[in-house]
Amino acid sequence: MNISEFAKEAGVSVSAVSRYFNDGYLSDDKRALIEAAIERTGYVPSYSARMVRSKVTKLVGVILPKLSSESIARITEGIGEVLGEEGFELLLVNTSNDYNREISSLELFRQNRVDGVILLAGVITDLHRSLLAKMRVPTIIVGQKLKGFNCVCHNDLGASYNMTKLMLDKGAKRPAFIGANPEDMAAGKDRRVGFEKAVLDAGLTLDPRFCEIARFSMDSGYEKAKHLFSGREKPDCLFCATDNIAAGAMLYCRENSIRIPEDLMIGAVGDSRFDRVLYVPLSSVHLHYKTAGREGAKMLLSEMKKTSEVHRIVQLEYDVIERESTNRIG
Amino acid sequence: MNISEFAKEAGVSVSAVSRYFNDGYLSDDKRALIEAAIERTGYVPSYSARMVRSKVTKLVGVILPKLSSESIARITEGIGEVLGEEGFELLLVNTSNDYNREISSLELFRQNRVDGVILLAGVITDLHRSLLAKMRVPTIIVGQKLKGFNCVCHNDLGASYNMTKLMLDKGAKRPAFIGANPEDMAAGKDRRVGFEKAVLDAGLTLDPRFCEIARFSMDSGYEKAKHLFSGREKPDCLFCATDNIAAGAMLYCRENSIRIPEDLMIGAVGDSRFDRVLYVPLSSVHLHYKTAGREGAKMLLSEMKKTSEVHRIVQLEYDVIERESTNRIG
DNA sequence: CTTTTTTGTGATACCGCTTTCACATCGTAC
DNA sequence: GTACGATGTGAAAGCGGTATCACAAAAAAG
Question: Per residue in B63-94, pLDDT tens?
Fold first, then answer.
């Protein structure tokens, strides 16, 4: 059933029906007629047709590197909450960390497909930048700082600095690091810089043999921990860029009777739900992922309303959560 | 730029352009002209306009109760993989376990918004059933068996039966159960029935004081474990409907010096990634979530192609993964 | 009582594309 | 040489809505 059939059924004009579903500039009796007819027929206007003329899709494209990650899931939940309230729906693209899919999704959304875009990316390349600059719809980046664009991000540097400091303050002298891809400015580079700064501020030196780069997985954390402990010199504290990496490293420790925190303190960033039920409850830094998603969505909403082109970067703070894995008396 | 401007730019007719993007019934020289013009202008046809006429949205609605759950994220990843290959995109609705949002999303998708729907639901009510029966687009249910509808589900009964049996075979005599909402036929009812069957088959009796119903969270698992151990009689093995519940229960055990597996064996269903790094590595049953998503998506694709109305229920099998939490010598 | 404004209304052009249709062209069969 | 199907083509009629507009009726202002 289309609008004109429905209008006939309701005994009103096509324009009246259209108004009913839009600005509402309509008398009460017509409104009643239309509502009665909706009740009878279950008529719902076609979204697609509406889009053609009004250029409004009520869709927001969300590009993410994977779904099965607690942090990303929480960000996405936050996004969905805020946008859902405003009647928007999420068009989700999971790029599976595939660079090409990320680019092609941006290309797709750059066109007329959605009213706005939220990008959760790890590594931002020049190609990303140039595509982002050419976006015709408002676009928000969550989880990374990118000058000249609208971003919601975390204080990764502060988080890693303070977690590392926590361990050093307890007397650790041989700090080790398992980080992520440094091309990822947030989880990779910033968390490394924070670690390094804390080490230097404590008057210690950085030992390159105690620095590893892992992928975002437990297995990778396990492997890197193995490598860390393969040398003669052993670290006495370990900062991991993510909880998953830390969990993997912890597994290696258990298998090799490295006591936590007695022999090795471990701290990480992320505060995953499983941290407190790990082999040894893991000290970690809570980042406000869901809030980041909500803030990103709010920022997008305001961008979609106004026409101004002011770019903002919002940085959320963090909470250091101490658990047993760093609970050593200095 | 619209199709007629573009056609002019390319020096061909509007029809030629339309054919280029659709059936491709076109001569090679026109095709070349169009391709050259695309190169120059970056023209992309409007999805919205295309939808109006062709009634094809290339969108699949996915309704899920939450995002930050490993099982759901994995199912959704599987769905995205398969549908992405076929050029479909996912319109995601996170209902946050809100019954009304579930219903209203079904209502929304029942109309002309998407080409197909995949529903991941816990509790299916009569209202769900009647809405599902009235769907005008192909719809697949993942994670639940529902007669008369297309479903991809797990063998929850077999999974819980065998996990329980594993523990009873090792000599446990006082089995306890922490389950989920029994209105959830899969994770709630079937997993309970499997547990009960295993207990009865082992010649034991069901002790109602050893049966708890939890929500899908660690905290809830913790609370229910506390309640289980509050009586005089203590269980010697515990089956939990999900890994999260088990992790919470394990936390209670640690705090109260209940040794695992010596005093209490624990087994669960789900095989979450964190199982092996828990306080005590958790025995669990691996369900093929991602495969379920993939199969659901394939089923949807075949439903969208054909017009027949044959309903199938596909049940996936499972793998029992034994770890330390049940590693007791009977 | 006229003029102006407000409020409500339906006809109709239009959004950007797809589909239908009538027709032109070409190669092949008879 | 004619008949025929296969292939290719552009004009134009939709698809189901929204935006614009002219205009009527009622209310407010003068």
Answer: 999 998 999 999 999 999 999 998 899 999 99
A2 touches strand D (CB under 7 A): yes
CA of B31 to C1' of C28 (A): 26
Closest residue in B to A247 (Cα) is B277
Which nucleotides in chain C lie less than 7 Å from some protein C-beta?
A: 7-12, 14-20
Q: Which nucleotide is nearest to A25 (CA to C1')?
A: C8
Whether the CB-CB separation of A42 and A35 falls below 8 Å is answered with no
d(Cα A21, Cα A36) in Å, to the nearest integer?
14
pLDDT digits (tens, 9 = 90+) for B193-222: 999 999 999 999 999 999 999 999 999 999
Which chain B residues are within 8 Å of A48, Cβ to Cβ?
48, 51-52, 57, 112
Question: Residue-wise over B211-232: b if at least 16 C-beta within 10 A, else e?
Answer: bbebbbebebbbbbbeebbeee
Omega of the bond prior to B261 within 30 degrees of 0, cis?
yes
Contacts of B175 (CB under 8 A, 6+ apart): B164, B167, B168, B195, B199, B204, B210, B235, B236, B237, B238, B239
Beta strand B283-287 with B318-321 is: antiparallel
- In this prediction, residues B131-150 reach a mean pLDDT of 92
Q: Do B92 and A80 touch (CB under 8 A)?
A: yes
- DSSP-derived letter for residue A278 is B
Cα–Cα distance for residue pair B152/B140, rounded to 1 Å: 8
Residue B312: pLDDT above 80? yes
Give the tens place of pLDDT for each residue, A136-189. Answer: 889 999 999 999 999 999 999 999 999 999 999 999 999 999 999 999 999 999
The pLDDT confidence band at residue A307, using thresholds 50, 70 and 90, is low
Nearest to A217 by CA among A240, A241, A188, A248: A248
- The spacing between the Cα labelled CA in B81 and the C1' in C16, in angstroms, equals 31
- A45 CB-to-strand D distance under 7 Å: yes
B residues 213-242 near A, CB within 8 Å?
218
Residue B307: is its pLDDT beyond 70?
A: no
The pTM score is: 0.92
